[in-house]
Amino acid sequence: MLLPGDPARVLRVADFLDEWKEIAFNREFRTITGTYRGMPVTVTSTGIGGASAAIAVEELAACGVRTMIRIGSAGAVQPGIAIGDLIIAQGAVREDGASRMYVPEAYPAVASPRLTMALEDACRKLSVPWHSGLVRSHDSFYIDEEAALMAQWNRKGVLGSDMETAALLTVARLRGVEAAAILNNVVLYEGDVKEGVGEYVDETTAAAEGEKREIKVALEALYHSCDESAL
């Protein structure tokens, strides 16, 4: 299944499906089911931040979901990542609070190698710009020390910064669920977060094109790698 953050992005995923129907929408959690190239697919939004993402993972795992791919957005932590480039998370720095409620920080947030390789293969086949490595998940865009933290993680080779991947990967691993994340870069390194998010809303921008690419990549990765019964 696919996990966007934004409930509106669920409907944009629907544009790529053969057929679909909405089955639930409460608060930030919107769910549709449909098919992609004949493959059953479920899409659920997780809202903003690790806390709501963890709730979504818990409840979906309880429903029997065993394969999850986050399709989210991120800000670049390296200068060579353009707006609309895709970032595949091999693992995540756990600066969020939600994952730390489950296990100590020494426990790694690691993506499924199988799903990560499927995402990388799909990027190659579709010839989209992509980067693969570590990301950082945190709980606020606007803390006073954000610039210093970004500079620190830049020096450590972290590629992008988001709010949900660490919680997703941690909770999924604890619940026996395969999980991965692909992120659309919407803010340049050392760029203005408010400006980047504003441009993302404009469907004609490079960021909006990046979202379309990440949806296609994630669907293709599922199609070529996953057991239909677990989607």
How many separate domains? Answer: 1
Gyration radius (Cα, Å) is: 16 Å
What is the percent of helical residues? 25-40%
Overall geometry: globular
SSE order: EHEEEHEEEHEHEHEHH
What's the number of helices?
Answer: 7
DSSP, total strands? 10
**SS class:** alpha/beta
Helix and strand layout, with pairings?
Blueprint: E1 2-4, H1 7-14, E2 19-26, E3 29-36, E4 39-44, H2 50-62, E5 67-76, E6 86-94, E7 109-110, H3 113-126, E8 130-137, H4 146-155, E9 160-162, H5 165-174, E10 178-187, H6 193-201, H7 206-225
Parallel strand pairs: 1-5, 5-10, 6-8, 8-9
Antiparallel strand pairs: 2-3, 3-4, 5-9, 6-7, 6-10
Helix pairs in contact: 2-5, 3-7
Report a brief summary of the structure.
This protein has helices at 7-14, 50-62, 113-126, 146-155, 165-174, 193-201, 206-225, and strands at residues 2-4, 19-26, 29-36, 39-44, 67-76, 86-94, 109-110, 130-137, 160-162, 178-187. With 231 residues, it is an alpha/beta fold.
How is this structure best described in words?
This is Uridine phosphorylase. GO terms for molecular function: uridine phosphorylase activity. With 231 residues, the chain is an alpha/beta fold. It has one domain: Rossmann fold. Helix content is 36%, strand content 29%. The chain contains 7 helices and 10 strands. It has helices at residues 7-14, 50-62, 113-126, 146-155, 165-174, 193-201, 206-225, and strands at 2-4, 19-26, 29-36, 39-44, 67-76, 86-94, 109-110, 130-137, 160-162, 178-187. The strands form 2 sheets. The protein has a 5-stranded mixed β-barrel with strand order 5-9-8-6-10, surrounded by 4 helices. Strands 2-3-4 form a 3-stranded antiparallel β-sheet, with helices on one face. Strand 8 (130-137), helix 4 (146-155) and strand 9 form a beta-alpha-beta unit. The longest helix is centred in the last third of the chain and has 20 residues, at 206-225. The radius of gyration is 16 Å and the shape is globular.
